[in-house]
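User: Thanks for the earlier help. One more: Acyl-CoA thioesterase. Can you show the sequence and predicted structure together?

Assistant: Of course, both are below.
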Amino acid sequence: MVPMATLSDSMTEMTEILLPNETNTLGRALGGTVLHWMDICAAVASMRFAGHQCVTASMDHVDFVTPIDLGEVAVIEGYVFGANRTSIDVRVDVHAEDPTAGNRRLATTSFFTFVALDDEGRPTPVPELECPTEAEAALREEAVEARHKQLRQVTERIGDSG
């Protein structure tokens, strides 16, 4: 029997306050810092889902749609929305939050693929994804659609430039 895990089993939220060492000369988050936070969040979501160590296989396109300013809080949220034999697809959203006013705005979204590893470091099977509630099924569908939309947009940009 194939083990099952739910989307909610993988839900992960991290927060980071943006400090001076993580900013550019404009006082905004360095892109590499945000990518680092996203990768960690996706790794935790993957490991919670798989019950194994997981490694990054790929990260889809990233557009920074709004900056995260010095002193703001980055809220990084991730969850598993797809599972194959040994790989796991994770959506990660990053929001910039003013901690005093509570205002939140989307900074970026991307999609990761992770591979679960056994104790010898070899790919190992992962549970099947189960979405037992309507809310989980809706989150999964939203992630699938958003990923397809993002990939289409990237493909169109490449086609327009070539």
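User: Great, one quick takeaway?

Assistant: The helical segments are 7-10, 31-50, 134-161.
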